[in-house]
Amino acid sequence: MLPVLAGLLLAVAAGGRGSAAGDQESPPGSRFVCTSLPLDAAGAGCPLPPVPMQGGALPPEEELRATVLQLRETVLQQKETIGNQREAIRELTGKLSRCESADGKSSAGTWKKELGKGKDTMGDLPRDPAQVIDQLSRTMQTLKDRLESLEHQLRANVSYAALPNDLREMLQRRLGDLERQLLSKVAELEDEKSLLHNETSAHRQKTETALNALLERVSELEKGNFAFKSPDEFKVSLPLRTNYLYGKVKKTLPELYAFTVCLWLRSSASPGIGTPFSYAVPGQANEIVLIEWGNNPIELLINDKVAQLPLFISDGKWHHICITWTTRDGMWEAFQDGEKLGTGENLAPWHPIKPGGVLILGQEQDTVGGRFDATQAFVGEMSQFNIWDRVLKAEDIMNIANCSINMPGNIIPWVDNNVDVFGGATKWPVETCEERLLDL
Q1: What confidence tens digit (pLDDT) does each residue in 120-168 have?
Q2: Using CA atoms, how far apart are residues 215 and 207, in angstroms rounded to an integer?
């Protein structure tokens, strides 16, 4: 603006000198005022008003004042235009920053959608999430560079003249295109986020379905839903010495004054096979317990009273065990593979077995139905666990051990739907009685 103003001042001064010389040399009516114009003044949109001829000429001071006022108005208009353009640039820069921030947050997720090849700047996203982030970063940096270049151009143009209309329109078109591209990219990122969420939900649902199917299968295994040839031709397997593998008999015991317990066992655990079964009632966790703990012999507990049994079954072979007891004088008998190996008396005499308790296979109960101790757990396999409410004859016990007769217990029979298994214990079809006898 200073060159224009200096040119006008020189033109006015030259005009004054020309007027003085014209009075002497020029004929009347031939006075002219010469004004210096920049080369691009006409194209810059700043035409100067026509200079009046001699008849209507203004004094030099008034003409200079009018020119200065017009230039001041032009400068104010330019400042206002530049301020609006700077505000637009600031707003677009803010949008770019928000896009970059959103891009940084979205990069923490996992991009799973397969995308095709596109343009390098604003095209489709690549397949690799790392490439997506790099491409978006390059795109944002390119847009920022373009905006900074436009801002530098604006600052350079301020020193000369107001921006032409076509340049302003071109700048606005470019800014509008950039803004539309940014909005399109943001919308595309939102679509990708939605698709990723949908894929994650579908994957989670598929995983839950698979887990539910697996849980149902595990439940079936725990419940022993096998196609057994007969309801009693199965065994319970307890392979680990833990406090969570066990079987539970659904039925409970009535009040008993005598009983006989028989079962098949196979175990090679050492030291001690653990607890094949335990029966607990409220107030007495050791109502009936058969246990071999550590290096101690097998013990029978009734009402927490103990009798040691002369049984030896930890050789990894199938053995048939029977125990009888009566409250009269506390008499007891112990049979192994059909033979009586021991007898005794004074084991909880005149104590009736209390009803309504919990009968557990493979664990010793410290409370009714719980508080198992892994060191007392049974390790091995068992089958044909039966309880009668009387003392069986030695002949009957021998026939059961020799597979001569099949005599289920009248209080607790060995049937599939009466035994549940938990914690990884399993029920499997068992060999026939004759095959088990091959181990004897």
Answers
A1: 444 444 445 556 556 666 776 776 676 667 666 655 554 444 556 766 6
A2: 12
Q: Tokens 């104010």 — which residue?
A: 76
Look up residue 376 and give its amino acid: Q
Q: Which helix (H) or strand (E) holds 83?
A: helix 60-106
In contact, 305 and 391? CB cutoff 8 Å: no
With a cut of 90, say whether residue 10 has pLDDT above it.
Answer: no
**Number of Cα atoms under 13 Å in the Cβ half of residue 14:** 11
For residue range 18-28, list pLDDT tens digits in order. 444 444 444 44
Is the pLDDT confidence value at 328 over 80?
yes
User: Token pair of 26, please?
Assistant: 């020029």
Cα–Cα dist 198/195, whole Å: 5
Q: Give the global pTM.
A: 0.50
How much is the pLDDT for 279? 96
**Residue 384 near residue 264, CB atoms below 8 Å:** yes
Which helix (H) or strand (E) segment holds residue 217: the answer is helix 165-223
What was the pLDDT predicted at 437?
60
Q: How far apart are CA 12 and CA 4, in angstroms?
A: 12
* Amino acid at position 360, single letter: I
Radius of gyration of the chain (CA): 52
For tokens 């506390």, the residue is: 330
Q: Give rounded-to-5 percent helix, strand, coil for the chain.
A: 40, 20, 40
> Residue 131 corresponds to which tokens in the numbers above?
């490439």
